[in-house]
Amino acid sequence: MTLLIEESAPSTQEKAHKARGTVRLREHLMGWLFVGPFALVFLALLIAPLAYALYLSLFRKKLIGGTSFVLFDNYVKAFTDPSFLSGAWFVVRFSLVAIPLQIVVALAMALILDAVTSAFARFSRLMIFLPYAIPTVIGAVMWGFLYSRSFGPLSDVFGVFGATAPDFLGGNLIFYGLANVVTWQWAGYYMIILYAALQGIDPALYEAARMDGAGGRQIALRIKIPLIAPALLLILVFALIGTLQFFNEPQFLRFLAAGTIGPDFTPNMYAYQQAFALANFNYGSAISFALGGIVFAGVYAFLFFTRKRRSFL
Amino acid sequence: MAVQTRRLFATAAMLTAACVLAACSSDAGSKSAAGASDSGNDTTGNKASNCTNTIGKKNLPVVTFWGWYPNMRLVVDNFNKQNNEVQVCWTNVGQGGDEYDKFQTAISAGTGAPDVIMIEADRIPTFQIQKALVDIRKYGYDAVKDNYGPGAWKDVSIGGAVYGVPVDGGPMAMIYRKDVFDKYKITPPKTWAEYEQAAQKVKDAGGPLFGDLGANVPAVMMALQIQKGATPITYDPARPESIGIALNDQASKDVLDYWGNLARKGLVGTQDQFTPEYISGVVNGKYATYISAAWAPGYLTGAGVGKGKDTGKFAVAPLPQWDPANPVQVNWGGSAFSVTSQAKNPGLAAKVAYGLYADDESLTDGWTNQIIFPLNLKALRDPEFVDLKVSFFDGQQANKEVYVPAANAYKGMTYSPFGQYYFDALTKQIGAVIEGSITGAQAADRVQEDVANYAKEQGFTVQ
Predict the structure, then answer these.
(1) Which B-chain residues 217-246 have CB contacts (< 8 A) with chain A?
(2) Which of B8, B14, B437 to mutate to probe the A interface, most A CBs <10 Å?
(3) pLDDT in tens, B149-208
């Protein structure tokens, strides 16, 4: 604005242009300097590896015949590969069962803990959260032992009724065995997020609701849950991304049940197997990107369908 | 001024970040270099700092080495003490699969592999086909040729080339529980038919399981198939593009069906082996036999088997046969030392491969503690080794009676150049057999199809 006034004098205008240019340049430079550290790490540790993996996924290396450029052949192969497809189908099914289970458990616990204020509630909150603080590997190993029919508690429990303990690491029950481990590990974490959201609600709302004659159940269903819908949405997205990339738990339980959990049990495990055990870095990268595509599509679809409905129930 | 200060600050911050990054990468670089190739003549013990062992003679050139034998430290120290030409810098990067994954990644990266590496004989073709191993014939093979039997050399050779120095083997036999056999009045079965009858007899009398079909030990299944006459892989490195894959011939089907039937009838367990679950079963006498290799007693002892009230309960008998008139001995496991193609000085590396674990002291420590079943004939012919009364087997002369004859009769095998894929495929189908969804014969067909497809995909002509 001020610069416009100086238009009449060409020499000053030139000067001003120059000054403006310097200021702008300086501002730009400052901006870049501030963004720099982050941008550097972001580029070096995220974008560059991604770009490299994408590049790798366009080639195919054979033991006989060497490397050749195949464009999207690896992707075509992935989406016709029964190993990848069955793994992808497994994680999709697993998401449909395990995520609602986790959310329901987390929500129920958060609502209870929000309604009760006592030392016991604080203690419970910590205990429910604790599994999240246990490293996944240790959690998986621990459950491996708990499921064991030789030294786990299951044999004793079922023995009381004269029944044989089910094998949660066997082919038929591994799905539920894993769903249980995941729920145990993550429900506490989601509970904390929901609990924090509940604590952020203005208590005056409850008071008003009570004056209007709402009971505890109605307050929970009609006030609390709609108000924490954004938090619910958040953890649903977290859970969806995490579950579609399922890796740690099955990878470690594989040491106990190699016959049940194959190397292609989930797409991520399959990508790992291809890249690091079979040296097919190209196909491994393609599987990773294909999985990334599925995750992206899943999350996008989810956000698309929930975008208008602000209240969740 | 303020701007100046801020700019300075920002620049400083950026520099710091850059430094952190640089430090990160240089650290990672030096880590891999420790396992890597810095070992030529220019690097001596003075510079090799990342070894697990302490190098005594610091002015000698150093060869880097990965290995996982439990007494590795002693073996490396013995070598370094006795050698005045080269010193070994040893790292244990994991056992079996863990190490192979790291080695595989180093091969793909073109850097980061050690000069000498311990690998199981069945993995040699997998790495050889990627040109990751060096033929060590010209580096002093003739001097040690007579120290090992022909079967041992065959396992580490491809065509006429030698890609490793044999260290230990796994002649297979049947470990059994004397208490169970005595209780149900069984003598060790000499054939697989007798094995099944004995298993039925024990089951009918309310006894424990007779053995175990583990999905995670495909190498055992392969060995037992070979015992019946299967030739899974035929491969001539002179024509590397062509490979013979016969994983569903009648012998392979028969053996898979045999074990599948035992499992279906409930005569054997279906537990993954090397797991706490399985070991606790062995400790508690849940399995009457364990079809395994000569290194098993050492492994079982280490896992706590055969101690306390189980002391002296175990004995060993030769592996049951299909045709007792023409017995066939097979092998499970056993490792070799190979020189990698990333070694800067292959000659020096070969000296290490030939010399490591080949001195009397190391070998004696290995077999007295049942860590290895040695393939070195110095040990195999040592009367003390042959006559050893193995405490795990209650003083039975297991080497003389069972393992040494088995090792001497072993003729060697040809392994697949994509061993990992083959074993994964076999594991998957054994899992399906255990689940009961397919028969052993169907499993063999599926493995054949799966592996043949993979081979074609990898550019081979499959015959």
Answers:
(1) 240-241
(2) B14
(3) 888 898 899 888 999 999 999 999 999 999 999 999 999 999 999 999 999 999 999 999
A26 interface with B at CB cutoff 8 Å: yes
Considering the domain architecture, whether residues A135 and A242 belong to the same structural domain is answered as yes
Contacts of A263 in chain B (CB under 8 A): 424
Instruction: Scan for tokens 């701007």, then name that residue.
Output: B3
Q: Which of residues 68-87 of B touch A (CB under 8 A)?
A: none
Q: What sign does the CA torsion over B148, B152, B155, B160 have?
A: positive
Owner of token pair 């050749």 = A68
CA distance A232 to chain B (A): 36
Reported as a pLDDT band with limits 50, 70 and 90, residue B44 is low
- Residues A126 and A233 occupy one common structural domain: yes
Nearest CA in chain A to B16: A37
**Domain B34-168+333-386 CATH (choose: 3.40.190.10, 1.10.3720.10, 1.20.120.740, 3.40.47.10):** 3.40.190.10
Q: Could you name the CATH architecture of B172-330+418-462?
A: 3-Layer(aba) Sandwich (3.40)
DSSP string, B114-166: -SEEEEEGGGHHHHHTTT-B---GGGTHHHHGGGB-HHHHHHTEETTEE--EE
ipTM over 0.95: no
The label of the residue with tokens 């097919």 reads A280
DSSP string spanning A77-110? HHTT-HHHHHHHHHHHHHHHHHHHHHHHHHHHHH
pTM equals 0.82
Per the CB < 8 A criterion, the answer to whether B357 and B75 are in contact is yes
Residue A160 in this model has a pLDDT that exceeds 90: no
Picking from A30, A34, A259, the nearest residue to B216 by CB comes out as A259
